[in-house]
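Quick check before the chapter quiz. The format below is the same one you will see on the exam, so make sure you can read both the input and the output lines.
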Amino acid sequence: MFQSSNLDIVVVPILIIVIMFIATVYAFATKNSKQRLYFLLGLFLKLLGGLIIGLITKFYYQGGDSYYLFQGARSITENFFDDFSTTIDILSHNSKYLVENNLRDNYFKYTYHILSRDASLIVVKIAGVLGLLSFNNFLGTSILFGLLGFIGNWKIFKTFTYLYPSHENK
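Here is the expected output.
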């Protein structure tokens, strides 16, 4: 189902290096060395987790919902510049609108049946936009999802350390 390519070997390390470089620059802007360590270690582990989940999905399960969601995301990524107005229309509407305007069947050439629920469609939309940064690569998109998840985790951590500064070291 998933097709491996030489792009996997190139995209994944480049994404990890670029993300970690930007993260290191950001981390060293903070004066708190303990938070710097938490940030860099947490981010690296989250990216590694995203890569591992992507590898398990790709090589062990060889498909499933992740496969269909990624195929929908591929349609968004591949048509982003070629059919920009339709892509923006799809990104800004729900699944009911797609069905009513026959966009679901015509636009999503790889798979469309999984897009009848808004919860699935939002994942496809996010992955489609992330596909622009990962060169439409499944493992690269998995890493970028890990990055997005970490940003939320880090914001929660920062909020709690602000509210309860005495508990930061516990």
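If your answer matched, good. Helices lie at 6-27, 33-61, 65-79, 84-91, 95-100, 103-107, 118-133, 138-163.
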